[in-house]
Amino acid sequence: MNHLNQLATKILAFISLIILLDFTAGYLFRYLETKALNNNPQGMIAEFTMCRAEGDIMIFGASEAHGGLIPSLMKNKLGISVFNCSNDAKPFYYQYCMINTVIERKKPKVIIWSIYSCDLNTPTKRDMNSLSVLNPFYDTNDYCKKVINKKSKYENLKMVSNLYRYNSRILNLISNIFSKTETDRGYVALSNSGYKYPTLKSGSEDCGIDSEIVDSFIEIIKKCKATDVELILIIIPKFENINNSENFGYKNLIEICGKYDVPLIKEFYNSPIFLNDSTLFRDNDHLNDKGARLFTALLCDKIKQIRETKCIH
């Protein structure tokens, strides 16, 4: 009996030590997170977007928008402040959390959202794993909790641990405490030279849709309308000539935009303006700085037309 009591005492002591270590680690990680955000806000894109980013126009998307839309140029052409909140390799559910949170924290006048038809498809395992950047917000943000719980049926149990929440963020936090990231209000330019320009891709695309993602997409559209935030969807050019005639995902995207009266600026995708000039691209999926400047200028002209038309009506 004595032996069992000693064993139970040791087990309880070990569990208590683990809980104490995890609690202490959580305190330390939150301290590092704040320090990193204060030192290098542009390197802490998710945290900065959730807590501090401001602009009359706010841009959301993945890497194609991060290096494809230039806030300073947009401000000069449109006359209002712009911030690019896009984040590389962050899929639909990440953007869903960012947009919802920004609307509730600091409602912008306009949201520009870069989206492709395949973004409405079922997320890959890699897509879901990339949501770990949202882990620190699990207890404080219902949108983050909702999408994180989609990763697995045990995610809510894993999230009890601070060590689990921050295990993929430690190096990033430390790096941002000692470094500075220079951007143009979120825009990061991709160089115009020093590499081989891409070769044009051609073909067709057929993206499916995921009903939960479509529901979340429509949820944001309705939220923008309910809060008087002007939502503009855009398809940023790629160096590929894609036939979307049989693309179910593309047709569904067009249908949703029509049903809810949301402008979708798609005419620059597959446009000869871009397809005839490879020097506008860093690779097949991304505009370089030269291409971004051209696209941003054309987009601003189109946004002016849309806004003027709305004023007339």
Structure characterization notes:
The protein has 313 residues and is an alpha/beta fold. The chain has a single domain (2-312), classed as 3-Layer(aba) Sandwich (Rossmann fold). It is built from 14 helices and 9 strands. The strands form 3 sheets. The protein has a 5-stranded parallel β-sheet. It is elongated, with a radius of gyration of 22 Å.
Shape: elongated
Give the averaged pLDDT, no decimals.
92
Specify the structural class: alpha/beta
Strand content: 5-15%
- How many discrete domains? 1
> Any idea what the CATH superfamily is called?
SGNH hydrolase
Helix content: 40-55%
- Please state the second-level CATH architecture: 3-Layer(aba) Sandwich
Low-pLDDT segments, ≥5 res: none
**Element-level helix/strand string:** HHEHHEHEHHHHHEHEEHEHEEH
CATH class: Alpha Beta
Give me the Rg, rounded: 22 Å
User: Main beta sheet: strand number and arrangement?
Assistant: 5 strands, parallel
Q: Count of helical segments?
A: 14
Give the CA-CA distance, first to last residue.
85 Å
Instruction: Record the strand order, biggest sheet.
Output: 2-1-3-5-7
What is the CATH T-level topology? Rossmann fold
Number of strands: 9
Give me the secondary-structure topology:
Layout: H1 2-39, H2 45-51, E1 57-60, H3 63-66, H4 71-78, E2 82-84, H5 92-105, E3 110-114, H6 125-129, H7 142-148, H8 155-158, H9 162-166, H10 170-177, E4 201-204, H11 211-226, E5 230-234, E6 240-243, H12 248-259, E7 264-265, H13 272-275, E8 281-283, E9 286-287, H14 289-312
Parallel strand pairs: 1-2, 1-3, 3-5, 4-6, 5-7
Antiparallel strand pairs: 8-9
Helix pairs in contact: 1-10, 2-5, 4-14, 5-11
